[in-house]
Write a structure and sequence with these properties.
Radius of gyration: 25 Å
Structural class: alpha/beta
Number of domains: 4
Strand order of the largest sheet: 1-2-10-7-8-9
CATH class of the largest domain: Alpha Beta
Distance between the termini: 57 Å
Largest sheet: 6 strands, mixed
CATH architecture of the largest domain: 3-Layer(aba) Sandwich
Strand content: 15-25%
Length: about 500
């Protein structure tokens, strides 16, 4: 099967708009990992993403009639910009349907390329459905972002360049996966030309649609998709991309939000460029591969796939980086409520640096503190520190991997509320746009008393909220039905140890 794509990739004349991007040695990362790490710099494309390759290749192969009628796509980001620039270059009218949640910087970028923008719905699926309706209505040609052989072939030119730029041995190539277009094109080419080179797909832990499909041996739809890495936030792998990938990839590696944030910092330190979360995903997978396999002296390639991120997201990324690099541990510690206890705790930590400290008086006997402590990237260092503190008589809960603690509770530590009963704690994600928080509250209004609320804008397409509601036991089933009907992603955090420790 790979050979059927090789000719398509070799015939993909994309360089009227795309550029051949460099394959740069990541000097600092190579030294740190004891392997030669090479970054394929697709963040340097004219639209700061590889997507321009597939979009232009598809457009180039349309009939004259199709070009005259115009094209349409649904996209909140990189595909939209790639198609808009390609259409502008070829004199084709392009319509891009984008969710209303799309940040203004991306909407403006698409319009600047000459495309007509239609804002519709809150999600990609709603935008896509509207785009499909316009196909029949206006006689437009739909340009799929990934599930199309011509688009896949265009993306596959990345692999063609990598193998030409580094004719020596390449042990493994790491490729980010959303719908799978880039990985399918690259894997098909690499496995035909250099079958000894391993190809690993890398997905976010909370959007691993390819891994789910390979596990089940069929395409599945994820019930919920994490949205931090919006460029790869796809619920189901493409039909054609799955057909290719199931026979060509050597494995799937998943990375969490903190690991992606750390990889963004790694790329910045080596290149002084800031990738988007999806753009750093492949490097996060590469680092995990080295850690789990203990390999040294190998040549490893990661695709830095894009750099379209909002500036105001950098604060959140920076906050999570130290944890992602495993250089910070987040702990909940019980100390005595008396003078000198904090000083003693610092002494018992030894020479470790405290990065964060939150505390509020709770009772006369015990104090519960939320503390960040600097540790070495070695997994054992964190475990040893926790055990050392426990050996010295402290009650310690390691919350380094607790999402509610990192997103919300670290900003809320304020003590318990003994007068609040029947409190149910829910964590929500909802589409972020002007008025979104008001609309969210309006839907909750009048149902149950809100006893706790924390909202923080992270500069992304989704808002994140932690809510406490007083719900009598007899009404819990009704509450669950209401939440399911609400249509927002939510998690029940009532039993979360961070909530129980500081606020419950």
């Amino acid at each position: 099967m790979p050979q059927s794509y090789v000719k398509r990739i070799l015939d993909a004349r994309i360089y009227d708009v795309a550029v051949e991007t460099p394959l740069d040695r990541a000097r600092l990362m190579s030294a740190r990992l004891n392997n030669q790490v090479l970054l394929k710099r697709e963040d340097l494309q004219p639209v700061f993403s590889f997507k321009i390759r597939g979009a232009y290749n598809k457009l180039r192969l349309l009939s004259e009639e199709q070009r005259q009628n115009g094209v349409i796509a649904a996209s909140a980001g990189n595909h939209a910009q790639g198609l808009a620039l390609s259409a502008q270059e070829m004199g084709v009218k392009a319509t891009i349907v984008m969710p209303r949640t799309t940040p203004a910087i991306k909407v403006d970028a698409v319009r600047a390329r000459g495309a007509r923008v239609v804002l519709h719905g809150d999600t990609y699926d709603e935008a896509s459905a509207h785009a499909q309706a316009l196909v029949g209505e206006k006689g437009l040609t739909y340009i799929h972002p990934y599930d199309d052989p011509d688009v896949i072939a265009g993306q596959g030119t990345v692999a063609l360049e990598v193998l030409r730029q580094h004719p020596g041995q390449i042990d493994a190539v790491f490729v980010p996966v959303g719908g799978g277009g880039l990985c399918a094109g690259m894997a098909a080419y690499i496995k035909y030309v250099r079958p000894e080179t391993k190809v690993f797909a890398v997905e976010p832990e909370d959007a691993a649609c390819l891994k789910a499909a390979l596990d089940k041996k069929r395409r599945v739809t994820l019930p919920h998709v994490g949205i931090f890495a919006d460029g790869v936030a796809v619920a189901q792998i493409g039909k054609e991309t799955y057909r290719v990938l199931k026979d060509t990839v050597d494995g799937v590696i998943t990375a969490n939000t903190d690991e992606m944030c750390a990889a963004i910092k790694d790329i910045f330190e080596d290149t002084r460029s800031i990738t988007e979360p999806a753009g750093a995903l492949a490097l996060a997978g590469l680092k995990k591969y080295v850690e789990e396999n203990g390999c040294e002296g190998q040549t490893l390639v990661a695709v830095a796939s894009g750099a379209n991120t909002n500036f105001d997201r950098l604060r959140y990324i920076s906050e999570r980086t130290e944890i992602g690099e495993k250089r910070e541990a987040i702990l909940a510690v019980t100390i005595a409520e008396k003078a000198g206890s904090y000083k003693k705790f610092c002494k018992d930590l030894g020479k470790r640096n405290i990065t964060e400290f939150n505390y509020r008086f709770a009772d006369e006997h015990e104090a519960r503190i939320f503390v960040g402590v600097q540790v070495s990237p070695d997994h054992n260092d964190r475990r040893e520190m926790v055990q050392e503190l426990r050996d010295k008589g402290y009650q310690v809960v390691d919350m380094t991997d607790n999402e509610a603690a990192k997103l919300h509770i670290r900003h809320m530590v304020g003590g318990h509320a003994p007068l609040v009963d029947n409190e149910q704690v829910l964590r929500f994600e909802f589409p972020e746009r002007p008025g979104a928080l008001f609309n969210f509250l309006a839907k909750l209004a009048g149902r149950w008393n809100i006893s706790m609320f924390h909202y923080r804008n992270h500069g992304s397409a989704y808002g994140r909220v932690l809510v406490g509601m007083q719900v009598p036991k007899a009404e819990r089933r009704e509450m669950k039905q209401f939440l399911d009907d609400l249509g927002y992603g939510y998690w029940d955090e009532t039993e979360n140890e961070a909530y129980q420790f500081f606020l419950g």
